[in-house]
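Comment thread on ticket #2218

A.B. wrote:
> Attaching the input chain for the structure job we discussed in standup.
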Amino acid sequence: MVKICSDSCCDLTAEQLKENNIAMIPLFVTLGEDDYLDGVSIQPEDIYDYVKKTKQLPKTAARSTEDFKEFFEELLADGSEVVYTGIGSQLSSTFDNARRAKEEMGNDRLFVVDSKSLSTGIGLLVLYAAGLAKEGKSGSEIAKAMEEQSDFNQASFVVDKLDYLHKGGRCSGLARFGANLLKIKPRLELVEGKIENTGKYMGQFKVVLKKYVDDMLAKCPNPKKDICFVTHTKTDADIVESVIEYVKSKNIFDCVVETTAGATITCHCGENTLGVLFLLERE
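C.D. wrote:
> Ran it. Output below, let me know if you need it in another format.
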């Protein structure tokens, strides 16, 4: 048996985790002096309340090597093989800690794969791995396939306002002022495992999102057709539904699934961040 596992940044729904027998280790979110577990003891709404009250951003933190050893040992206890992927190595120390845990454990039934992604970009790889496990592939076969697929993964988001990015030191006050005044919406994209600003849109959020969808489908003309995620932080339901229906109208994907980003992503992006994410056919 092969068990697939991830961290809470994968932003899969509780139903998807249960249906695919995916284990998850929650990441830390720190509010002031207090630590919480993403999706367990803290939810996105708690982040918004905290920022509104304190004008400060929470902090996020990886799980320790010892935490990962305990997590992996429990999954390995029944003799299963275990394949893990979580937030990308260039975005967090989480992957390094998981890899170090594997090295210290010296267990050849454990495989640790760098997703080079975040949010449902990770989730797509996790579901891909779960599908391979159901097909009876071995842990090593699944890990190898995931490593190859990680380079063919379209993960991007459009951010409505730069307030959280500004508070987190990721854009200057002048840039934030100008972007908000001109209604500029940056497109953030995972490129070789790093978050890059690959474009910008001007206008109302609801309007620019359709242009964003068109751009990403044109940029990535060879998507895997089984599933596409529309993943967002706190966003008006009508806007989310309009994007979902627009993606469906393209008649490309078998399934278009809405997910809400967890506390880890919310800490860095704030409200009204929305992405359309899908895997690509390998060349």
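A.B. wrote:
> Thanks. Noting for the ticket: The chain is about 40% helix and 25% strand.
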